[in-house]
Amino acid sequence: MKFLLDFFPIALFFVIYKTMGLYMAIYAMIGATFLQMMIARYRTGKFENIHLITFGLLVVLGGVTLVLRDPEFLMWKVSVLYVIFAFALVLSMWIGKKTLLQSMLGKELELPANVWHQLSWLWGLGFTGIAIVNVYYVNLALGAREALFTATELDSKIELTGLDCVNTTMEQLCIVAQQTEESWVNFKLFGTMGLTFILIIITIVFIKKYIKEDKK
Fold first, then answer.
1. CA angle at residue 2 from 50 to 84, to 5 degrees?
2. Can you list the alpha helix ranges (DSSP code H) found in 21-112?
3. Number of helices and strands (H, E) in the chain?
4. Distance CA 93, CA 71 (A)
5. Which site from 119, 123, 136, 209 is most exposed, i.e. has the minimal number of CB atoms within 10 Å?
6. Half-sphere exposure of 77 (CA within 13 A, CB side)
């Protein structure tokens, strides 16, 4: 349930992007992230740091994107967010008595200290990998976008989803720009969710023997 709640804003962003374009999708994601924060606050009695950080970055970078009509700021948010998460996970091994993962999951799982450290490295490196893959898609999308607007007299603030490429002077560049932006949006939902799910599966397999030993 929590996994679905965490990805709800991204899923809504994906749906609105496909139907109403990028900028309306940003408004929808900001609203959904705020709702997500409030639901977590209602269920646990406190705000979760991960939600506060995500919402803060989204409001700042999403807001700049909306004001300047430049998707670059929002696109980089994914990498910035996951690098922050990775840094926090790894750094927590040397700050405080518990790692960040142990503080979050210690009530449900009893694991040796060295295992919590290993899991922190696993998720830290995994989140770094997600950030790097996002960089790849962002560079593709922004490169194609720049090529299109440099070669044409189109207003760079226009939404790519609203362009009819057949009626532009550079049809192929337009199609590539649309496709690469859409690829980034697809990665934002399916890529981040899929890679996170893989990390969860690896974690379950890794700690399975410790859970069994605990039950004996």
1. 20
2. 22-44, 49-57, 63-68, 72-91, 100-105
3. 9, 0
4. 35
5. 209
6. 25
Q: Which residues contact 103 (CB under 8 A, 6 or more apart)?
A: 92, 96
Per the structure, how many domains does the chain have?
A: 1
Q: Which two tokens stand for residue 190?
A: 């399916």
Give the Cα separation of 13 and 192 in Å (integer): 13
Q: Which amino acid is present at 59? A: V
**Crossing angle for the helix pair 171-186 and 2-20, to the nearest 10 degrees:** 160
In contact, 3 and 199? CB cutoff 8 Å: no
Residue 207 domain boundaries: 2-215
Backbone angles phi, psi at 170, to 5 degrees: -125, 75
